[in-house]
């Protein structure tokens, strides 16, 4: 699970080790990446919204 | 290494020349409000961040190009990736962007906060003039460019404020927060005064806001900054910023004059008075399209001198000026001109340039018509 989260975070930044990328494609399940990706996108949007709301106070 | 030094030296000489750029008018002005100074500081900070990044990136690039050129026997490295460097060149720009966004957002929040204003001015863009209305103060007027057409045609020498002078400037007090409400009667214009760091689109059907709190008295000039038709270049902005006491006196005088004008609606006007007033209204409002001698500029702007349709039907003439003509360039002057001005300009156009109808239209008649 932690490995999936790390890979999704790397995808957010747009940088990933080639070795890790290959490993993800060989061993990971697509569904896990999609679910974690969607959840983390929602978390990112929430964090940005919260920062904006706090800054606008 | 020497190349890198040359680049750094170039960068430093730019620092020295920035003051020269400001003096030459190449840079944006510092302005005369706290907010304009803040915007200027932000602009310069971001400019120098860009300069430093540019010097470093191009310095490294040119240094590498020259130092490791093929003729010196350099061999290209052949590797696939370097995660550390990739993370660095992604994270560093991200941090720089956040560093720029934080102060920029703080300034934006101030720009978008017109609350607690002591004076509200409605600014309406019209082809091709500005209308200023001091809300709740019963003072409103049009501000037309006053540069003579002869200067534009090159028949006279250009004045000091060529194309940047008006018959009636917007008058504002210093040290008071003034809220502007912007809209337009026809197309999109933009009210731009660089010294206030205010450039706001005026959009028909919408009201947008902005505000100023001017620190120094003076005359500030600006222009329409949105291409709005043939006379876009001929609708300048002049703001006269006064000490607070002077402004209050000016406002009281204008209120008195407005009250007097309102009284003038009910009395009978002589033909000479109407013609004199009409000539002045025609000169500032109508002549840019229908031309100074009423000769027009067909087909868009019909001639008024000898216009048979207009001369034959006075009711049609009144209706055209009050309500405009839909689908043409002729706007409605219902709100732009008061009953006295409307009556005077109708009388003038029916009796000038050989249009000798003898019709004198009374302001009271127009006022009644406007209420219908």
TrEMBL record, chain A:
Keywords: Membrane, Transmembrane, Transmembrane helix. It holds the Pfam family DUF2970. It comes from the Bacteria. The chain crosses the membrane at residues 30-56. This is DUF2970 domain-containing protein. It comes from Billgrantia endophytica. The lineage of its organism: Bacteria, Pseudomonadati, Pseudomonadota, Gammaproteobacteria, Oceanospirillales.
UniProtKB/TrEMBL annotation, chain B:
The keyword Transmembrane applies. Its cofactor is Cu cation. Residues 1-23 form the signal peptide. It is a multi-pass membrane protein. One of its GO terms (molecular function) is copper ion binding. The chain crosses the membrane at residues 39-66, 87-106. Belongs to the cytochrome c oxidase subunit 2 family. This is Cytochrome c oxidase subunit 2. The lineage of its organism: Bacteria, Pseudomonadati, Pseudomonadota, Gammaproteobacteria, Oceanospirillales. The gene is coxB.
